[in-house]
Amino acid sequence: MVSESDILIIGSGITGCAVARELSRYNASVTVLEKESDVAEGATKANSGIVHAGYDALPGSKKAYYNVRGAKMYPDLCVSLGVPYRNNGALVIALNETDRETISILKCRGEQNGIDSLEILGKEEILHLEPNINPRVICALSVPGSALVSPFEMAFAMADDAASNGVSFLFDRQVLSVSRLPDGRFSAETGSGTFLCRVLVNCAGAFGADLHNQLSPRKLKMLYRRGQYYLLDRLSHQPFDRTIFQCPSLMGKGVLVSPTVHGNLLLGPTAEEISDPLDTATTAAGMEEIIRKASLTWPGISIRNNITNFSGIRAHLTDDDFVVGPCESCSGCFEAIGIESPGLSSAPAIAVDLREEIVSYLNLSMKDHIVPYSPQPRSFHDMSDEERAVVVASDPAYGNIVCRCEVVTEAEIRAAVRRPVGARSVDGVKRRTRAGMGRCQGGFCLPRVADIIAEETGLPVDRITKNGGAGFLLSGPIIHPGMKEGADHD
Length: 490
Ligand SMILES: Cc1cc2nc3c(=O)[nH]c(=O)nc-3n(C[C@H](O)[C@H](O)[C@H](O)COP(=O)(O)OP(=O)(O)OC[C@H]3O[C@@H](n4cnc5c(N)ncnc54)[C@H](O)[C@@H]3O)c2cc1C
What we know:
The protein has 490 residues and is α+β, with helices and mostly antiparallel strands. It has helices at 14-23, 62-81, 97-112, 123-129, 151-164, 208-215, 284-297, 343-362, 385-394, 410-418, 426-433, 446-457; strands at 2-10, 30-33, 50-51, 85-86, 90-94, 119-122, 139-143, 147-149, 168-170, 175-180, 186-190, 193-202, 222-232, 243-245, 256-259, 265-268, 272-274, 306-317, 323-326, 333-337, 401-403, 408-409. The strands form four sheets. Strands 5, 6, 7, 13, 14, 15, 16, 17 and 18 form a nine-stranded mixed beta sheet that branches. Strands 1, 2, 9, 10, 11, 12, 19 and 20 form an eight-stranded mixed beta sheet that branches. A three-stranded antiparallel beta sheet has the order 3-8-4. Strand 1 (2-10), helix 1 (14-23) and strand 2 form a beta-alpha-beta unit. The longest helix is centred in the N-terminal third of the chain and has 20 residues, at 62-81. Flavin-adenine dinucleotide binds next to helix 1, strand 18 and helix 8. Flavin-adenine dinucleotide is lined by residues 10-16, 33-36, 41-44, 47-50, 52, 174-175, 203-207, 227, 269, 312-314, 336, 339-345.
């Protein structure tokens, strides 16, 4: 099978989705090929969820440029896409004299990068603001611009907006090879067909360098750095209001202790070089390291409320900067490679630049009509009793709580499947609605969620997966209520 579009984007992480959304406003056919079965299955689903202000990246680097621009775009973007965002601020703490020097360097860097309002606070002020911090703290960089966001909810919203404006998202389509045809078009081979295009956009995360190296004589080398985390249940009393960082190292921004935008508590990440970009295991050694390092920030550390552990892979180029823009030796190919931290913060700005370059390359005109985005309604969990009564009256499925831990209703789960780029797996529903994100981690609601997906998609329930691929939840004969064991089943 051969398909053709003007523009082919490889990868539907935050970068690919942001680029797709930008391009969806123009008269061009755009297809996104994703090797997994949903949006945001790479680094975008497993990171700290911080919109960094931009104090860490080296002045003059692409990381600094895109971080600062991208972070400024977040507040408005989150409002228009209905994605939760909280400007909680951050402290980078110094626990010794070497850290104190690092803090001064970070402040200078941040100011060179154009961030104002950075301030170095003394011990008393820090302990007044955040009484649970290690009393051995000697000073801290206060970063009021730091914020919290849900990375995958951002990607889902961008994908929905792009799809509503004509972009096709095709899942389970791993691009195995890319090549340039004699007529100037590109060909992307997948296990289920060939995709031709005039412009190829490489947003393939940890596989970006592999694809680049097939088209360019200038070879890129990528290293994979795993970051493991502890995630604690939503807490009524968070130990910290701000995100608390330790001083960064060459391997990353260090272990943080931070609330999430939904009120969970996050501890991590580690920074381990690994050889397999798909190795998202968590390890006993990683967990011990997090506790050891996080307890330097929070001596009263408690992981009693731990609900899950996870890890994500940083796609680090040995040149130590993002590669963004046209591929220098292959016109028509545009790239966003090595998008490690602060890539989440940078993605909206990276997408604007790539869009401008692609629009100019293809000489595209804007569409006459852009379908306005309709943000998802506020979650039932966050509604007042009065608001709940109104939505239940309008749709009784709001009155049926499926996930008790996170108070997610049947109406919200059905809506998640019906979205323009809708959930097809239990984890897809989880990340769109939070059903299964709570203390029992889906122990109670998983079967009901699977039933709803089956009802909405028309698929048999034994075809519903936990997270795509062959991860089916059920196998063998299914006995429905009222049916005798051994009877025919559907
Ligand atoms: C531990 C950790 C913590 C982080 N914390 C932060 C933070 O707090 N703030 C911040 O700003 N940034 C943070 N980051 C960085 C941020 O997560 C990434 O920069 C961002 O998610 C990268 O998005 P992406 O779309 O470029 O890549 P990805 O999210 O990895 O997406 C790439 C997509 O391409 C697909 N793909 C790959 N190869 C192919 C192929 N051959 N064919 C088809 N599809 C393919 C993948 O399946 C994937 O869906 C962190 C990263 C990590 C790992």
